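Chain A, query sequence.
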Amino acid sequence: MALRTVPYQRKKAIDYANRWAYFRNPDFFDFSEIGGDCTNFASQCLLAGGAAMNFTPDTGWYYLSPQDRSAAWSGTGFLYRFLTTNEGVGPFASEVPIERVVPGDLLQFQNDREDFQHTPVITAVQSSVPAPDTILVAAHSYDCACRPLSSYDYRRIRFLHIEGIRYDDEA
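Chain A, predicted structure.
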């Protein structure tokens, strides 16, 4: 496999997030009633930003239908694991401190449970030094656009900086 890395198209991901924050794209199932739609929405934003799907069984990142998708497409912890360990086709990310986030990146919250359970998309950073009151997000489940990060109640937070996207030139 000959992998080629390309930049993540942040503006396209952000435009998608803002367009669909309060609506549901009919091309994708709405998981709101069965566990939440936030990570599904974040995955859609990554896809809009040029991400290639990774069809690796069990550990990939893809969506064909509600019954034929990877756990990483719609599961918060699974998406984190995929993005931070992916060495193959698709998007890849690093967990970074808040100071390194830029629009188009993702974040994940841990509230009162043991695991992280919400994945908003960063749509704007309103200062040169990102901080909870200057970061705006879009999300599903708790539908929002341009919501300040500081308005959320959470116990822990992690930030995922999307480093790029890999494609298989031989596929």
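Residues 3-23+31-168 form one domain. The longest strand covers residues 156-168.
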